[in-house]
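thought: fold this chain, then report.
action: predict
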Amino acid sequence: MEKELWKGNEAIAEAAIRAGCNCFFGYPITPQSEVPEYMSVHLPEAGGVFVQSESEVAAINMVYGAAGAGMRAMTSSSSPGISLKQEGISYLAGAELPCVIVNCMRGGPGLGTIQPSQGDYFQATRGGGNGDYRTVVLAPSNVQETVDFVQQAFDIADQYRNPVIVVCDGLIGQMMEPIEWHPVPKRNLPPKDWAACGRRDRDHHNVINSLYMDPEECDRHNLHLEEKYAQIQANETRWEAVHCDDAEIVITAYGTPARIALTALETLRAEGIKVGLFRPITLWPFPEKALHELAGAAHVRAFLDVEMSSSGQMLDDVRLAVEGQKPVHYLGHAGGVMPTVEEMVESVKRLEKEVK
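observation:
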């Protein structure tokens, strides 16, 4: 199969179109503006609808309406724009509406910088909206994975009737890489017989709603959502372990830092230092059980969490999974500064001396 050279953001948009995206609603913001730009030209050519909304708040509510009518709907933005969408994401989760949301992360807080960052981990995995809800969060580390995950995200969203977020830092959105447009396995999806798209062949209206005035009814709805989230945890948790079978020091990282860590692994292994990489692919559901089991292995002495955030965000989930079995250390930068191979190598070497 021939490879093609694509820019990350444009590949995201093309992947969505190939996955059957019917509707895109978005607003330009650096470093993801090429996604709506590409969609504005090519989605209508594929028979879909593109709308540049007047704001990010409007965009997410347009997604709500389109998803409620049974369409494959999508939006994308970058960190401050995703913040504005949080109420709508909570509504989508509460109403059990499938959609795909791409966050091409940039530095913060506030307006921050347009450089790549990973400061939105808490926002994506904990939810910035109100109530008890979860979104599936996929974290690619290169353009090929981004293309694959965006296509898979639509099926995951439809299967569980839930928003799916794809988080990629600004570097992945802006870089160009060769990719393959290979077939993505399709799921056996349930019919959208819940969609509010008229009464054809039905004797009742379908109602899309997240409002439950009766507290007992709202409690039952939340219990139903919890059951669904448990199914997602059982079926969709993903991770990658590289050289972890004998690793004494394990680096935990996702996205671009995980990719940088692979080079650090090569350097350290060449010097005889047994180091591995544990990369969560789903940030939620987090691969807690797999990391916990790895932490219990006798050969593992310590963990080094590496992120593009100031004091660590995934670090919390790493510590919760490890449960004090081994020490967990941190290396990170924020504001668009990336951890380097040299920093990782030095940190691992220093950590190796400490735990001997």
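thought: worth noting. Residues 4-236 form a domain with the Rossmann fold fold (CATH 3.40.50.970).
final: tokens above.
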